[in-house]
Amino acid sequence: MATTVFTIANQKGGVGKTTTAVNLAAALAEQKIHTLLIDLDPQANATSAIGVEKTEGRSLYGPLHGDGSAIDMITPTSIEHLALIPAEEDLAAAEIELSQMENYLMKLRAILAPLRATNGYRAIIIDCPPALGMLSMNSLAAADHLLITLQCEYMALEGLGQILRNVERLKTADVNADLELGGVIMTMFDGRTNLSRQIVEEVKEHLPEKIFSTLIPRTVRLSEAPSFGKTIFDYDPTGVGSTAYRDLGQEVIQRFALK
């Protein structure tokens, strides 16, 4: 089966993007789906959240500059069926340097092509920086599907429109004509508040075919797990966060026929 590339993006920080990238990747791996998580954020939060030490020269910074390959950067994790390409602080410089290169939006797509050709992974999940800069735009150019994490707060809806407009620009410019909105993942949901329910209903009204049924709850356990270098499944295996991400994993598997 061919490799499917997902990019998880939102220009706003603190919306559960990295938490979702890490735990969705782990949920797919739990179902024996060979998954590669790519940390493209210079802060390397996904790298540390999965229990891998940041190591100089192990990120995609070198390959983006023509030094080495993405395959060389793959690092094993403690989770069966899940591998990682870590991030490092040098990626911050790539935001500036990429803009000075030829075909600057296509660099990530080019370096992932040999990796995709091996069919070694059924799913590749890219965690982007919390901004629509060069790295995030490269990830959109390289992806089959965009997954947007959307916090259940009013201001989040403004950001949704902005990122969808960027997707259309990439498609009309033939940078990635095949890019599709894979779905919207509602995060930090608090069923006790009217606001959370209203935001979910509004997204359902505008994107009824795209919103995932699973609502990721606001829970302290999901916030704590990364500081221990653990996924939610290792940190709180029977909690509401684990249940939610397992359910989301099943939805993603079914929606994109990953099995």
Explain what you see.
By secondary structure, the protein is of the alpha/beta class. It has a single domain (4-255), classed as P-loop containing nucleotide triphosphate hydrolases (Rossmann fold, 3-Layer(aba) Sandwich), CATH 3.40.50. It is 41% helix and 18% strand. The chain is built from eleven helices and eight strands. Strands 3-4-2-5-1-6-7-8 form an eight-stranded mixed beta sheet, with helices on both faces. Helix 1 (17-30) crosses helix 11 (240-255) and helix 5 (107-117) runs parallel beside helix 6 (134-142).
Name some characteristics of this structure:
259 residues; alpha/beta; Rossmann fold; 8-stranded mixed β-sheet
Helical coverage, percent range: 40-55%
Mean pLDDT: 93
- Assign the CATH topology: Rossmann fold
Overall 3D shape? globular
SSE order, as H and E?
EHEHHEEHHEHEHEHEHHH
Structural category: alpha/beta
Quickly count the helices. 11
Indicate the CATH architecture.
Answer: 3-Layer(aba) Sandwich
Short note summarizing the structure:
The chain is 41% helix and 18% strand. It is α/β, with parallel strands linked by helices. Strands 3-4-2-5-1-6-7-8 form an eight-stranded mixed sheet, with helices on both faces.
Helix and strand topology:
Elements: E1 4-9, H1 17-30, E2 35-39, H2 45-49, H3 61-64, E3 75-76, E4 82-85, H4 91-97, H5 107-117, E5 123-127, H6 134-142, E6 145-151, H7 156-172, E7 180-189, H8 194-206, E8 211-217, H9 220-224, H10 232-235, H11 240-255
Parallel strand pairs: 1-5, 1-6, 2-4, 2-5, 6-7, 7-8
Antiparallel strand pairs: 3-4
